[in-house]
Amino acid sequence: MDAEALTEQEKICLLQIARQALEQAVGQIKTSSPVVQSSSARLQQPGASFITLTINGSLRGCIGALEAYQPLIEDVREHAMAAALQDYRFPPVTVEELAGIRIEVSRLTQPRPLDYTDADDLLKKLRPQIDGVVIRDGFRRATFLPQVWEKILDPVEFLEHLCLKMGGSPDLWRHKHLDVLVYQVEEFREP
User: Is the pTM of the predicted complex or chain greater than 0.85?
Assistant: First the structure.
């Protein structure tokens, strides 16, 4: 991770912000004013995050931003609400599900281009378990966080699933030179 690591207190604060936003999104909290505040200047600086929601270890929602465009604390709040209500793969989270949901926050570094010559070179340059990967083909793009390597260990399969997620054929990366970017994350979750 390029950026300085967050303190334990900052991580706890961000998890509290995410939990509050999740509860607000499903109508459990009526107020729109922040209940959790942070005195950390770092959380007020621009930051990009992904929020992942799981129930019993299974994905329930995941939404985020690849590039920083607002304070990290606001980015976490916005994406926690979006993961609960706007992930097209799932229906909106219900009040009944709240107690079973676990929140994971991933703070991203700035994505940087990965230069490669062909499909074989791309496979050699990927760093499983370390890099998150973004692929772009024109206006289409998709990303997998580094945590996805835990479920998809094979780099070929990883790229195939990423192409499918983008809306392309699984072998698109083999016969077309895609824009590929990599990034790292600082990831932490609720107990």
Answer: yes
Enter the tokens of residue 156: 């070929």
Tokens for 37, please give them: 């505040």
Determine the Cα–Cα distance for residues 191 and 57; give it in Å rounded to an integer: 12
- Report how far residue 3's alpha carbon sits from residue 186's, in angstroms, rounded to the nearest whole number: 9
Domain boundaries, the chain: 8-108, 112-184
- Residue pair 108/48 in contact (Cβ under 8 Å)? The answer is yes
CA distance 162 to 137: 12
pLDDT band at 31 (very low <50, low <70, confident <90, very high): low
Query: Under CATH, which architecture does the 112-184 domain have?
Result: 2-Layer Sandwich (3.30)
- At the topology level, CATH places domain 8-108 in Glycoprotein, Type 4 Pilin (3.30.700)
Tens digit of pLDDT for each residue in 111-147? 999 999 999 999 999 999 999 999 999 999 999 999 9
